[in-house]
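We treat protein structure as text, and this decision shapes the records that our systems exchange. Below, we set out a record of this kind in full and without editing:

***
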Amino acid sequence: MAVDHYENFPVASLLLPRRLRPAVRAIYRYARSADDIADEGVLSDAVRLAGLARYRGALQCIGTGQAPEAELAPVFAPLAEAIARHQLPLMPFFDLLSAFEQDVTVTRYDDYASLLDYCARSANPVGRLMLALYGASTPDNLRDADAICTGLQLVNFWQDVQSDWHRGRVYLPLADLRQYGVAEEDLAAGRITPQWRALMAFESQRAASLLHSGATLAGRLPGRIALELRLVVEGGMRILRRLEQADYDVFLHRPELRARDWAAMFCRAILKSLT
């Protein structure tokens, strides 16, 4: 699930069993509020990092059985309850926090490996926590969930090139920019050149390959979570198709999923669950 405001969580809230919804809301509240500390408003980097350090301290309190500071209780009291009730691992929460801290201090990624390392902490923990809620954290499931979550994160990056640029960030690996002859000045100007299209086609194929490689996970999970998983994979692939149809002009044609897209995705997900 993409970290950028966790756009896939509304799907989870509708399809998850009622018994798991409080835990999902608690995880969402934690991730969303920490993401906002790192991203929103006009705070200085020092203030953002200090706010995230308070979150780190609150997580450590949960780990030692202590109560976090009262001001953070609206976020961490329900989170502590969810962690205790479902025996959730703490590491994914620390990994997310590490990624949010990195958002404050890192604005460029030298190569694909560096970007994957970031995705392993910014996106993959959510999939791992969902598997933990279902008691399905097997090695094969974790591997496939990581592939799906990283793939979705990359899709999110590729559709948000312009908005990330305005925030001062470039998630396209610098090594790939050089290889395809694309400069940061091209991003600033929104130039759609043959080199840009080739670069984005390459990056989109990377994301699609990850989504395809993890898609078999749905066949090993029970009904609702399997349907949700098929939906988010369908959503990622649909956005990639929209990028291609727009000739990779993400500057003027950012793809968005509308009601008819969700209806089509739901039908495809149902059909896949029956085959």
Remarks:
- Confidence is low (pLDDT under 50) at residues 1-12.
- Residues 223-245 form the longest helix (23 residues).
- Residues 19 and 91 are 23 Å apart (CA to CA).
